[in-house]
């Protein structure tokens, strides 16, 4: 998942306070020893962290560990601080050089200075901001805090739960320095696409409300305003008139259409379209829900039956998801070379491998336990191009580099940079979430995977160009 990295502002401010508030009795957060990796892992041991997920099939699933034990009926900041200590010190196995024990102590001091008695500090937007900065202090892009809304959205995406309110069925971005919202996706069979909208269209107004940039607005402020307007216009589920600009064949035209928002799935599945004779674009927006690998195999099979010779796999903006689904997708591209071994802090290393339509797993052993199966598996044998950008992360980077090892061409820009590690996202006190890097990833040959993938040459994924009719990475791929 792509996230803006934030500075430890509350902690730094706290460090400037000359006399932090002393702890009250029982308010000290217990010290949690940092675990160490054993020298000789055993094949027969059963990793506790993996058992808590329901076995290898649940990796990158819902819970890092069961609901925190001993938490107050009404959770406090104390509970969250302890949960984070236990999860990071017991599970973190990334490449951060931060002194984790010092980070925990600094966070406790800063929290007490900012909020007083930690057991009495109720959870709020302010404590969420503090916890976000605290966990970002690990300096690992795969380790981060999720507030209640973010954790709920994550869980919804895993199960493809219905969206809480009606939606247009698009992904969009503010056009840098300009008015409007350019569409990154208009998902097939969802409201916007059914009304004729497509990627690259720029929304100029919705429900009569212009999507114009206000004087002095930054791109971030403009995006926040657009989010509010688009959300308000779609929340009621009533038909709404959308005015948009479309750039095509060197000309720009403005038109209007009516979109009827409705409740949708939280996790759109992959889709495909022909973009040139013999060339199919396969758009994969997320790995976050089950069924992704099956859909990719089905779409690739369809492309082969249509005599396509060039497959373009679009992973732009795909922040990752379920590792089992990612290995299943890679299997359609590279066959038995799809897989990886995850080194973990407790030495219970897990290997995932694709074999004949199945993803198998093993703990310090040959992978033999089925975790995912694909009906009618496909194997692409033609030309393969993969589109990535700075929003391509985690599972996207894993699939891209496995494919690149067998000759796929990478097009676009440098990816986010967490493709050499694996994370588990789980619940902490207060119905918040915590993502922790729990493993370092090697390919099936035992070679470490790289943090990011960088096409050469780099083709910027320019949103302003897209809003005016030029999808630069796709144009490069078609050349």
UniProtKB/TrEMBL annotation:
<dbReference type="InterPro" id="IPR036034">
    <property type="entry name" value="PDZ_sf"/>
</dbReference>
<dbReference type="GO" id="GO:0006508">
    <property type="term" value="P:proteolysis"/>
</dbReference>
<feature type="signal peptide">
    <location>
        <begin position="1"/>
        <end position="21"/>
    </location>
</feature>
<dbReference type="GO" id="GO:0007165">
    <property type="term" value="P:signal transduction"/>
</dbReference>
<dbReference type="Pfam" id="PF03572">
    <property type="entry name" value="Peptidase_S41"/>
</dbReference>
<dbReference type="InterPro" id="IPR029045">
    <property type="entry name" value="ClpP/crotonase-like_dom_sf"/>
</dbReference>
<dbReference type="GO" id="GO:0030288">
    <property type="term" value="C:outer membrane-bounded periplasmic space"/>
</dbReference>
<feature type="domain" description="Tail specific protease">
    <location>
        <begin position="252"/>
        <end position="456"/>
    </location>
</feature>
<keyword id="KW-0732">Signal</keyword>
<dbReference type="GO" id="GO:0004175">
    <property type="term" value="F:endopeptidase activity"/>
</dbReference>
<dbReference type="GO" id="GO:0008236">
    <property type="term" value="F:serine-type peptidase activity"/>
</dbReference>
<dbReference type="InterPro" id="IPR005151">
    <property type="entry name" value="Tail-specific_protease"/>
</dbReference>
<protein>
    <submittedName>
        <fullName>Peptidase S41</fullName>
    </submittedName>
</protein>
């Amino acid at each position: 998942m792509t996230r803006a990295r934030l500075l430890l502002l509350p902690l730094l401010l706290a460090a400037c306070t000359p006399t932090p508030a002393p702890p009250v009795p029982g308010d000290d957060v217990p010290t949690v020893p940092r675990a160490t990796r054993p020298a000789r892992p055993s094949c027969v041991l059963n990793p506790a962290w993996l058992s808590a997920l329901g076995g290898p099939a649940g990796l990158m699933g819902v819970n890092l560990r069961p609901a925190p034990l001993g938490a107050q009926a009404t959770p406090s900041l104390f509970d969250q601080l302890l949960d984070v200590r236990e999860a990071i010190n017991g599970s973190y196995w990334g490449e951060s050089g931060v002194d984790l024990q010092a980070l925990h102590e600094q966070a406790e001091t800063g929290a007490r200075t900012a909020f007083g008695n930690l057991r009495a500090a109720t959870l709020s937007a302010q404590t969420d901001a503090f916890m976000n900065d605290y966990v970002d202090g690990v300096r690992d892009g795969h380790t981060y805090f999720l507030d209640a809304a973010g954790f709920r959205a994550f869980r919804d995406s895993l199960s493809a739960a219905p969206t809480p309110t009606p939606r247009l069925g698009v992904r969009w971005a503010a056009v840098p320095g300009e008015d409007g919202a350019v569409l990154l996706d208009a998902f097939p069979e969802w409201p916007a696409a059914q009304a004729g909208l497509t990627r690259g269209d720029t929304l100029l107004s919705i429900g009569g409300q212009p999507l114009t940039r206000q004087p002095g607005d930054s791109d971030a402020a403009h995006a926040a305003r657009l989010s509010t307007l688009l959300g308000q216009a779609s929340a009621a589920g009533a038909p709404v008139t959308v005015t948009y600009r479309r750039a095509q064949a060197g000309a720009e035209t403005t038109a209007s259409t009516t979109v009827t928002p409705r409740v949708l799935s939280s996790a759109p599945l992959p889709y495909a379209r022909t973009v040139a004779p013999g060339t199919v674009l396969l758009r994969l927006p997320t790995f976050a829900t089950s069924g992704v690998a099956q859909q990719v195999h089905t779409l690739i099979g369809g492309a082969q039956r249509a005599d396509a010779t060039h497959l373009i796999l679009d992973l732009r903006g795909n922040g990752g998801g379920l590792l089992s689904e990612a290995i299943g997708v890679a299997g359609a591209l590279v066959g038995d070379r799809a897989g990886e071994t995850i080194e973990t802090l407790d030495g219970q290393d897990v290997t995932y491998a694709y074999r004949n339509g199945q993803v198998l797993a093993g703990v310090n052993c040959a992978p033999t336990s089925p975790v995912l199966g694909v009906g009618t598996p496909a194997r692409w044998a033609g030309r393969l191009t993969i589109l990535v950008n700075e929003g391509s992360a985690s599972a996207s980077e894993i699939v891209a580099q496995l494919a690149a090892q067998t000759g796929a061409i990478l097009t676009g820009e440098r990816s986010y940079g967490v493709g050499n590690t694996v994370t588990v996202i789980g619940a902490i006190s207060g119905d918040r979430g915590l993502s922790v890097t729990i493993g370092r990833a090697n390919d099936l040959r035992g070679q470490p995977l790289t943090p990011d993938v960088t096409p050469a040459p780099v083709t910027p994924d320019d949103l302003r160009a897209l809003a005016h009719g030029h999808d630069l990475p796709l144009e490069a791929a078609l050349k």
